[in-house]
Amino acid sequence: MxxxxxxxxxxxxxxxxxxxxxxxxxxxxxxxxxxxxPPPRLRITPRIMADSQGELLLLVPTTSYRLDDFRAAALRxxxxxxxxxxxxxxxxxxxxxxxxxxSLDYRQPARxxxxxxxxxxxxxxRGIVPASDPTAVIAALxxxxxxxxxxxxxxxxxxxxxLAMREALxxxxxxxxxxxxxxxxxxxxxxASEVSFPCVLKPLILSASRGVIRADDPAGFVGAWRRxxxxxxxxxxxxxxxxxxxxxxxxxxxxxxxxELAVEGLLRGGRLEVLAVFDKPDPLDGPFxxxxxxxxxxRHPAPLLARVEEVAAAGARALGLVEGPVHAELRLxxxxxxxxxxxxxxIGGLCSRTLRFGAGLSxxxxxxxxxxxxxxxxxxxxxxxxxxxxxxxxxRGVLHGVRGVEAARAVRGVEDVVVTVPEGREVVPLPxxxxxxxxxxxxxxxxxxxxxxxxxxxxxxxxxxxxxxxVA
Length: 472
Ligand SMILES: Nc1ncnc2c1ncn2[C@@H]1O[C@H](COP(=O)(O)OP(=O)(O)O)[C@@H](O)[C@H]1O
Ligand SMILES: [Mg+2]
Prior knowledge:
single chain; Aldehyde Oxidoreductase, domain 3; four-stranded parallel beta sheet; binds magnesium ion
């Protein structure tokens, strides 16, 4: 949409997000750089009056791709929104005491939950929505204290740690890759002699494919190990925000060949309602696993998809998750669906913009309504196919310009082109990188047409990325 923001709140966010950068990427995690374009303009008159049923607390990092869309959803539903984040001091200096911003210590989930409970003494917090894995733990702890429907904190913790997740799923008989964790200070060459190839090495606590590397032989294994070690060292401040011990190991898994799907769902009282199943039509064979295209509905046969849904539901159950959003990733292995990941949060980045339910509800509206205990009818996704392409970062450097945006937007079926990286900013590809260049969105009658539109739009875009000048 044209460049003017829809609400004062969005103007506010645009300022705050430039002031305090936090990492992030798309479908694995919550936060990220601010969108340069505001979200689609609301088509109905927002109800601004306060909802007597209370306020919703949204837990995000200071800058989140998601914040604008959640704000729009809350406004549209007439739910007053409080935004909890670990905003940096620069932003606090800028805003002073902001009434609807809650500054929380994300590094200590129990402390953050206490801060929320304190805030709830003077404000009517009636629902909490986390937008990331670590905030899902805080949300669970805080909701427990406030007596709101919630996931058991232990379940949210399991979902936020790849090793704990693997163990819980395996113990419950849910199909997962064979895995083994090694202490980060062990000898990688010895570790390499104890695993089979091909395998995938990954840190326990990062997301969005950061540090996820395939190795086909011992030399590749050692190289991947060293790279993850460096990445974990370089992201120390982020790591501090996660569960203790989570950064001390490397997880090694068997590589599961096969098509990958993502399941977006909502747990209500322990029952998983599947909201959408996405195909990821680009092969994800490594050595790095950059996500690109997501298209829904899936083109796999219905019986297989029914099985995928069953396995995702069994996985959520095995983790102990019972309430709120779920984002699961599965591969279609030789013996059926294998769970790669089940997160207690919704799809990340701007990818939720692919989804519309019922009479046009956004995913954020569904989540806000659910958290506030509003009645939600059967959540049927629109009939049309829909897709997103996360624009990959081809190489490290500084973004100097983007060409072809109008040409990309002119492709039939393309609904929006959103470049999220400002010119002049350094961009870093996987496995170290933490963001995308932006997002393409398309809708159409059939998934194949949506995929083709996304590919054509991407072909029309040129990103001018020049090497960063060395800083003395
Ligand atoms: N064991 C595996 N076999 C095959 N591919 C894998 C495996 N583990 C991870 N991947 C690939 O890497 C991607 C990211 O891994 P994942 O464990 O989901 O980490 P993240 O939390 O960073 O998304 C997956 O979506 C998948 O494409
Ligand atoms: Mg993942």
